[in-house]
Each structure stands twice: as C-alpha cells, then as structure tokens.
C-alpha cells in the first residue's frame, strides 16, 4: 500500500477562500444565524435555502440560438382547467397562473358553443364547464411574457367547423397582432427558428385543415401557397363570393395562422421522421418516443 501525501493548497488560494467565507458571513449577519460556536441546525437550513444559495441560476446561461426543437419546453395540459379533468371549472385563471410560473406551451380545446356561432374552450366529452376562447386569448396576450420573453406556443385541439375556423383566424389576428409569429414562407417551416429569434412572439400549433380540392382533385402544397396569397388579395378586392369560395377561404385563412403543424402519425412513424424538408409537432406516447429515440434520436431533434 502506498500513502499519497496530500498537498496543501497555495497560500494565495487559502486567502481567497478565507476572504470569500468572511464575505458570506458579513452578508448574512443581519439574519442572526451564526453563533460563536458555529451554525445550529435551523440556521444551516436557513442559509441552505436562502437567496444567496439558490439552487437554480436565475440568469440565462445556456446558448439559446439553436432551433426550438433542441430545447425542453415547460408545457401545460388542458391549461384552462381549475381542477380535475372530468368535472372541474374552465377559467382563464389557471392560464394566467401557468404563464406567471413560466409555462411556455398552453393547450386549448376548441369546441362550438351550443348555438354553433362562436368558439368555446372546454374538455370535450366531460362535465367540465366552458370559457370563451376570446377571454383565453386575451389572458395569454396580457400575461405571456411576465415570467420570460421566450416564445409562447398555443396548441389548439380543434373540433370546430370551417366557418368557426375563419372566426378563430380573425380573433387570433385581432388579439395578437404583431405578437403573432408567421413564417416568411407561407405553408410550412423547414426548420424551427431559435428561442432567441422568437422572443416576444406567440406561435399557433394545431393540425392544419384538409387540403382544399378543386374540381374533385386534391391540390399540391405549392398551390395551397398560391391560394393563400390569392386569398389575402380577395379579402380586400372581392366582397361577394359563392359558398364554395367562402369555404375555401375559411380553410386557407385558418391554415395560414399555423406556424407549427401538428399531426398524429398513422402507420410507420419512422417514415414521418425521415421527411427532413419540413418540421412538425408529433403526438407520441412516452413508450413510442423512448423506443424511436434509440435509433432515430437525430431525426426527432432537428
């Protein structure tokens, strides 16, 4: 057995640590937790959980310039419910509370009201009450960036008709205005921007409406883009449209809101992950995600 001689730290290092320790003592003197014989148990815990010994760094210390998909997002689920998922009250209060805690993803379930002339937020198929979508959006606008300037994503679970989708599109536009993030290329992003670039922005994520059809034929994504531009012009220049044209505009106007397309993969999930020319939000169970991550981790986070 060999004994290793423990080297003493240099005198300069000892002096630095001594001065640091003295500074801590002086800064906490007003708390009256230090006794002549050292710390008692309660005083130790008061120091351990004090402001000068916080467990989390309250300053941004990580690189925030990578694509948004490279980060974990603080996410809410049924963010509008005050209590349980079956019979509790729907309200804007839980949304405000979540945003003030730093939650960055707010989920809203959209349903027609009883007259089917407006949109409400509730947990469908349960006994939960409802709250107006407009009230929820106003609450998000007013509190989105109280805790952080990094982007807020609103996920819509959409159960509404094309006419109501059009109403939602106008509502979102009116309430968020310049806060709303719209990709410069209209139909779908190919790469997520970074959290740094998205500061102060609100993004909408939901499953896009079905691609419209012309004369019984499904049109391409490029044609969707062209129709969206045409739709913007027609809203200014044309007041009288046929019912078919109106339905088409309703679908395209709503689609144009969506910066993060959502989808639930059918069939081979790996096929979806191989489509590198577009980004989307996939709904996967934890078990499926864990299994796919073993072989497709770089395809999931890109």
Description:
- This protein is α/β, with parallel strands linked by helices and 302 residues long.
- The chain has 3 domains: 43 residues, no CATH class; 194 residues, Alpha-Beta Barrel (TIM Barrel); 39 residues, no CATH class.
- The strands form 3 sheets. Strands 5-4-3-6-7-10-11 form a 7-stranded mixed sheet. A two-stranded antiparallel ribbon has the order 1-2.
- Strand 10, helix 8 and strand 11 form a beta-alpha-beta unit.
- Helix 5 packs across helix 7.
- The chain starts with 10 loop residues before the first helix and ends with a helix.
- 24% of the residues are buried.
- About 5% of the residues have low confidence.
- Keywords: Hydrolase, Lipid degradation, Lipid metabolism.
- One of its GO terms (cellular component) is plasma membrane.
- It is found in: Cell membrane.
Classify the beta-strand content into a percent band.
5-15%
Please write the string of helix (H) and strand (E) elements: HEEHHEEEHEHEEEHHEHEH
Number of helices: 9
Number of strands: 11
Radius of gyration, rounded? 27 Å
| Morphology | elongated
Determine the N-to-C terminus distance: 52 Å
Supply the number of structural domains.
3
Quaternary form: single chain
Major beta sheet, specifics?
A: 7 strands, mixed
* Helix content, binned percent: 25-40%
CATH superfamily of the largest domain: Phosphatidylinositol (PI) phosphodiesterase
Strand order of the largest sheet: 5-4-3-6-7-10-11
GO molecular function: phosphatidylinositol-4,5-bisphosphate phospholipase C activity
Pfam family, one: PI-PLC-X
Region (Disordered): 226-251
Keywords: Hydrolase, Lipid degradation, Lipid metabolism
